[in-house]
Structures are given as structure tokens and as C-alpha cells.
Amino acid sequence: MNILSVWRQSFLWLILLSLIAVAASAQSRRASAISYCERGLQFHLNGELDLAITDYGIALKFDPGYATAYYNRGVAQYDKRNLDEAISDYTRAIELKPEYADAYYNRGLARKDNGQVDTAIADYDLALHLKPDHVQAYNNRGNARRSKGDMDGALADYEQALKLDAKLASAWNNRGNVWRAKGEWEKAISDYTHAVNLDSRYAIAYLNRGVIYLSRQRETEATKDFTQAVKFDQKLEPIVAKYWRAIREQQRTEVSSARNTLITLFLVSEFAAIFVGNIPPRSSE
User: pTM here?
Assistant: First the structure.
């Protein structure tokens, strides 16, 4: 074997060893990224959002292409109400993983909360294109459509959500809000009743049903619902106090229209965030 052949063989071995080293390094970096992402998830589930965000950031230093770390950091930013940061992280996750239906869904929720209703609806559309049985995407797209005054579109979305999951209490409550907006009081009461039957601690559904009872002069039933609403969510107590003040004012002034205006003035809408409020497990990649 001449010197040139020896040199070529040595060079090829050097390239092979370099490739092996690079692959081993990449595997090590991905393993470290996964480890930090998992620890970040535990911090997040324990409510330690700043620590979670830090760990997700470290994971991304080890592996800048790790879509799950961007996604989970986006959820943590959303939970801190850092909506612009959440949207940015979801966008990066989508760039890395274009078929990431849940990232489109969560970005839609963040955009809706950020006042970007049209782009939120577009994100829900994309989530549903990728995952046609995404119940929460139908539910929240209905909320977005309702906020734009598209009651028929909202109604269609809530009904599709209920076809997919008849036990989704928030969809019953939200459809009740549409029936209320259409003046279909008994249908609204029926839907709110379904909601509280499915979730006996659903404070907003009790509140919404109570408002309709109050507007229909069924004060005993309204009192029971308001009591339940405040029992399960004390933050609703000032809202309930507004209702009763309006009624007492009506009784003093004998303004007959006061009851009918209560629903428009005070109805509380429920914009469900069930999927985002509970971080899904880290997806395997």
C-alpha cells in the first residue's frame, strides 16, 4: 500500500469518526433538551411559571429546533398573560412543525385574548383542518364568532362541538349564550341546565341561568342560582350585587323595561380555555 492510499484511508476514517462524533453530540444535546423540557413541565404543573420558562429556554439552547419546547413555553407565557410572547412561541413551534394542530389552536386562543379575532378564527380553521375532531377548536371558534356578532356561525360551531363531545359543559353554556342573544329564553335555560348538570360547580352557568330567571321574574330560582354561583366563585359576588341593585332600582322606579335590559347589560360570557389551562403531555418526537 503506497503512501497516497494510506493517506486516503486515514482521511476517510477521520471523516467517519467526525460524523459519529457529530451524531453523538446531537443525540446528547437532544437528550439534554428533553430533560430540561420535562423539568420545565413539572415546574409549570406546580405553578412555578418563571422556572418553567427558564427551563424551556435552556432546552432550546441545547436544541433550537425543538418544537415542543417552544409550544410549552408558549403555554407558560400565556398563563402569565404574556400574550405577545406566547404568540411568538406558538408561531415558532408551527414553523418547525407545520402539522402542529394544538399549536394553531393555542395561538388562536392567545390571539383572541389579544384582540386579534380574525386571525384567531383563521388559526382555529387551520387547527380543524389538521384535526377535524378538535372539540375545543370548535368551541372556541364559536366564542370568537359570537364576539363578532356571528350568532349563526357560533351556533353551528357549538353544535358541532356537542356532537363530538356531549359532555363538554362549556359548549352547553356557550350555546345558551347564543340562544339568549336570539331571545330564545327557554332554550338558553335548558342549555345552562345541561351545563350545571355536567359540572355541578360551574359558577358562570349558574350565573347566566340566574340572570334569565331574574329577567323572567322568577326571583326564587334566580336567588338559588346566584347563591350557587357565588359559592363556587366568590369573584362573581360583585356582579350578582349589580343584578340585585338593578332589580331594586326597578322596583323603586317602576321602570318596566329594567328586567329585560338586565340580560344585555350583565350576561357573563364564558370563553373556555380548558386545553390551554391544562398543559398536554410532551409529545414524543
Answer: 0.78
